[in-house]
Amino acid sequence: MIQLKTLLNCIDNSGASVVECVNVLKKKRAATIGDRIVVVVQKQRAAGSEGSGTALANKVRRGDIRHAVIVRVKKELQRVDGTVVRFGDNACVLVNKSGDPIGTRMTGVVGQELRDKQWSKILSLAPVNV
Amino acid sequence: MAALPTMRQLGCLRALLKTQEAVQPQIGRRFISSIYSQRPERVPLPPNLPKQFLSQLPERMQPENGVPQACQGLPSAPSARTACKDPVASVTDSQMTVLDPKGDRKALFDYRRNARSVKPGDIVRVTFKNGDPFNGVVLSIKLRGIDTSVLLRNELTRVGVEMSVKIFNPNIQSVEIVQRAMRKPRRARLFYMRSRKHDRRSVENVVAAYIRQKRAFLGGNKR
């Protein structure tokens, strides 16, 4: 149940670590896995090595407004076969306007609902899906 | 301030007159609704009514239509309650014969009666028909007939994941007990294992060891 002001973890290497939802797109209700939202970057991931290359480090900065796709939610989700899935946190991945992920790597498990909503690029980046 | 009657003794007379004026017309007034009259008795038709007057009577009162009868209505449908005493049980039974004909899946989760069944606290591996497995600690078993489900908890990539699986789901290939609970938990529902203090964390290494062992027993077989 992601809505206005919800804080989410960002699990890609785009440079954001915590983002805040400011809008849910194409939906009048709370967003869930596979939904696209608009976020504000609240906390930046510390760039690994400051001196080496800033171009490689953070693609987004604190205060940036970006689109994101939700990949994990705390609220339990029921699938068509009756299984119910619940994750330990709310997490998302930043995407650009055309829907391609901004980061190149992802850490952490994502929900399989992304497959139904045609986010196969995100699914292929994810190490595990449940 | 109104004058007290003791100060002006004739003033009370006027007050008396006033009340009379206000009350009197109401007593005499009669409303249409207040007129009550008995409902008039229905006058039966004279027995020997001349024929020329019959055309003035409505259809239902014509002598050839007879005495008006109360409408009988249709006979009531047979009661479903008597036809099927316990519909939920019959649906459950019919579904059980389809989804679990041998009854072994039911026995595997019937933790109240079967001592060898899955119990809360065990580590279980559920493999789906599409090939992806889910491992986890059993937090609770909901015995609800055909809707019986088991809640599994695991930690994948340092994120807690819970999955409630319906055990008679036809998409499930197999359910294996990987490890029994170390000692019998004192609860039937182990929701306290969600708290950080009691969390079992990842069970992937336990399951991996089990799979290695199983492969060794089966002699190089896959899975």
Automatic annotation (TrEMBL), chain A:
Matches recorded under CDD domains: Ribosomal_uL14
A cellular-component GO term for this protein: mitochondrial large ribosomal subunit
GO molecular function, one term: structural constituent of ribosome
Keyword Cell cycle: no
Domain of life the protein comes from: Eukaryota
InterPro entries, sorted: Ribosomal_uL14 (IPR000218), Ribosomal_uL14_bac-type (IPR005745), Ribosomal_uL14_CS (IPR019972), Ribosomal_uL14_sf (IPR036853)
Protein keywords: Ribonucleoprotein, Ribosomal protein
GO biological process, one term: translation
UniProt cross-references to NCBIfam families, sorted A to Z: rplN_bact (TIGR01067)
Purpose: Component of the mitochondrial ribosome (mitoribosome), a dedicated translation machinery responsible for the synthesis of mitochondrial genome-encoded proteins, including at least some of the essential transmembrane subunits of the mitochondrial respiratory chain. The mitoribosomes are attached to the mitochondrial inner membrane and translation products are cotranslationally integrated into the membrane.
PANTHER family found in the cross-reference section: 50S/60S RIBOSOMAL PROTEIN L14/L23, LARGE RIBOSOMAL SUBUNIT PROTEIN UL14M
Family: Belongs to the universal ribosomal protein uL14 family.
Protein name, per record: Large ribosomal subunit protein uL14m
Organism field: Penicillium cosmopolitanum
UniProtKB/TrEMBL annotation, chain B:
Entry GO MF terms: structural constituent of ribosome
Keywords: Ribonucleoprotein, Ribosomal protein
Record GO biological process: translation
Record-given protein name: Mitochondrial ribosomal protein
Matching Pfam families: Ribosomal_L19
Superkingdom per UniProt: Eukaryota
Family: Belongs to the bacterial ribosomal protein bL19 family.
One of the record's GO cellular component terms: mitochondrial large ribosomal subunit
